[in-house]
Design a protein that fits this description.
Keywords: Membrane, Transmembrane, Transmembrane helix. By secondary structure, the protein is an all-alpha fold. The chain has 2 domains: about 30-140; about 145-215. Helix content is about 60%, strand content about 0%. The chain has helices spanning about 45-50, 60-85, 85-110, 115-135, 145-165, 170-180, 195-225; strands spanning about 50-55, 55. It has a two-stranded antiparallel sheet with strand order 1-2. α5 (about 145-165) crosses α6 (about 170-180).
Length: about 220
């Protein structure tokens, strides 16, 4: 599409479904003149999400191929938009690509004639992708990490108070906050062998995972290629 003139072109239909764009070369094409807000999803993605093709249920191989194509389409368009400074639209399509990639992992796992090791790798990738989605929306929904943070703090505050009735609510809250951020427990409150100490160590580990995940996903979003 080098040198293509897109001014006034309507990219989405009435349902907001855009065109097929997988493997399109966007070099020297001015994407800023297109109203990308009208495009809710690309045709590549729409087709991949359909369960049937020509009235017949798609087999697993076709579904995998279409999903991989949809991932590629969204990523390529996101990179092209980002290169032209259209970051808000680029972010949306990049997020779609991540969600589709999660489905790719699942489809890879359920393919026929796949070795057990490959199924295991696909399963672990699928589970980890779900984790990133729930915790931070792949870096595009950082507010989820804040909600997870609040949930963990409140949960362990209640847990500490139940394990140690001698603790006041504000004391349990302070212990939860310090444990989450890796500050550990207070020796004057409970010893390393107490259930409270074990709970504190568990919360510190969960806090570390959430913090590292948030930093990694946001870094990948803003600085990844």
């Amino acid at each position: 599409m080098e040198g293509a003139y897109l001014t006034g072109v309507i990219m989405g239909d009435q349902e907001g479904i855009g065109p097929w764009v997988a493997d399109t070369i966007w070099e020297n094409v001015n994407l800023a003149v297109v109203k990308w807000s009208q495009v809710k999803k690309l045709r590549d993605e729409y087709d991949a999400l359909q369960g049937k093709l020509n009235g017949q249920v798609k087999d697993r191989a076709i579904r995998l191929d279409e999903h991989e194509k949809a991932v590629r389409a969204n990523r390529q368009l996101a990179l092209a938009l980002q290169a032209q400074g259209l970051n808000e639209h680029a972010t949306r399509f990049a997020y779609h690509a991540q969600r589709l990639q999660r489905r790719v992992f699942w489809l890879q796992m359920i393919q026929q004639r796949v070795k057990l090791r490959q199924r295991g790798q696909a399963l672990s990738s699928w589970l980890f992708s779900w984790f990133l989605f729930l915790i931070a929306g792949y870096g595009y929904r950082p507010e989820r990490s804040f909600l997870a943070y609040l949930f963990i703090i409140v949960f362990f505050t209640v847990f500490y108070h139940q394990l140690g009735p001698q603790l006041l609510w504000n004391e349990a809250f302070v212990i939860s906050m310090t444990a989450f951020h890796g500050r550990g427990f207070f020796p004057s409150t409970f010893s390393p062998g107490d259930p409270l100490a074990l709970a504190s160590a568990l919360e510190a580990f969960i806090g570390l995972i959430i913090e590292v995940t948030l930093i990694a996903t946001i870094t990948q979003r803003f600085f990844g290629k």
